[in-house]
C-alpha cells in the first residue's frame, strides 16, 4: 500500500511539473516567432528522436530539410557567425543539466557552466595554462611524446589507437602534473572511461531530467536518476583526486617538478574554490588535453586510408623538407615550410566533427530578434557541427578529405574556415595546444608510416565511433614506409621512451 502511494505521489508531482512546463511553452509560442520546428510527440517533443550515437548524420538530414535555422540547430556558418560570434554576450550561456552538471559534476565542469562569474574565473585559469603564450612550455613535451608515439607505432602497430590516447594524455599530464603516461597505463584507461561516461550521459535524450530540468524540482529521494549520477561522480572525482593528491604529496616531500599544477595550487583563486571545483579544474585539463587530439589523429588516419591521393602530396612536401631517404624527423622549425601539413590538420578538424557531432547547446540569456524571428530568453541553440562541416554550399566536395581547401594563406589560423573548436566565447580554450598536438604527431606519422585498409574491413568514415571503450574505432594496417624510416624511428625515438619523470 505504501509503495502504491509513493508511486502515485511521484506520478502526480511529475505530471504537475511537466504540465507547468507545457503551459509556459504554449505561452511562449504565442508571444514569440520561432523558426521551423522538427515534428515531435506531445510533451516530450524530440527527446526520444535523437539517436544515442551517430547524431551527426541525423542532424545533417534535419538541416537539409528545415533550412538555415531550425529549433535548437543553427545550420549554416552565416547564422552561427551572426548569433554565436557577433552576439556572443547573450548567446553563450548554458542551459541547466541537472544530471551531467548538477549531479555528475557537482556544478563544477566548466564546459557546462552558465555564463557567470564562476565560469569567468575558471576560464581565466584555463586560458593561462592553455593559451598561445604557453606554447614554449608545451612544445618540448609534444616533441618528446610524439617521438614516443612513433616508437609505439613501430613496435606495437596493432595498438595504434591506444598509442594516440597515451600521447595526447601524456602531453597534458606532463604540463599539468609533471609526470608522463605509459602505453596502456590503467590510470589513463580509467580517465578515458570517465570521459566516455560523461559523453554518453551528455547525449540528447540520455537522461530525461536534462531534457526536462523541471523534474529536478522533485524531492531528491524521488529522483530515480540520482544514484546513477552520484556513482559516476564518485568515480570521476576519485580519478581526479588521485592525481592531485600525488602532486600535493610530492610538494610536501619537496620532490615535485615545476608544473602548472604546482603554480595553480598556490594561486589566490584556488583558496576560494570548493574541493570539487579544484578537482574539476584539474580534471577538465586532463580531459580537454586528451580526448579531442586522440580522436582527430585517428580521423586523419582514416582519411589517409580512404583518400590516399592527398597523402602522396603531403609526403612530397615532407620529403622535400626532411629528406627523401629518411634523413630526419619533421621539427617545429619546419612548420613554415610544411603548409600542407597545417592544411591537413585543419581538414582533420573539419572533415568529421568529433566528440560534439551536433555541437554543444548554449542558452540565450535575454529576448532577442533575428531576421524576423523573436526568441525568448532561455531558448537553447547549438551549432550543427556535422551539418556545417558537410554542407556542399560551404565546402566543395565536403565528404572528401581534401586538405587543398585550406591552402589559402590562412593555414596557420587554426580557427578559420571550420567550427571544430566551437564558436564565440565558448570556443575550446585549449584549441592551440590541441592543434599543435595534432600537427607534430601527424607530420611525423605521415613521414614515417604507411596506413592501408585491412582486406575485407573497409572504413565507413560516416560511422566512426567516438566512444570506443578502449577498442580500435576502425581497422588499419600500420607499417613503416621503408627500412630507412624504421631505422630513423629507432635512432631518434628510443631515448624518448626511456625518459622518465
From TrEMBL:
Heme binds at residue 428. Gene3D superfamilies: Cytochrome P450 (1.10.630.10). InterPro entries: Cyt_P450, Cyt_P450_CS, Cyt_P450_E_grp-I, Cyt_P450_sf, Cytochrome_P450_fung. CDD domains: CYP64-like (cd11065). Its cofactor is heme. The chain crosses the membrane at residues 6-23. The keyword Endoplasmic reticulum does not apply. Residues 230-257 form a coiled coil. Keywords: Coiled coil, Heme, Iron, Membrane, Metal-binding, Monooxygenase, Oxidoreductase, Transmembrane, Transmembrane helix. One of its GO terms (molecular function) is heme binding. The keyword tRNA-binding does not apply. PROSITE patterns: CYTOCHROME_P450. PANTHER family: P450, PUTATIVE (EUROFUNG)-RELATED, P450, PUTATIVE (EUROFUNG)-RELATED-RELATED. Belongs to the cytochrome P450 family. This is Cytochrome P450.
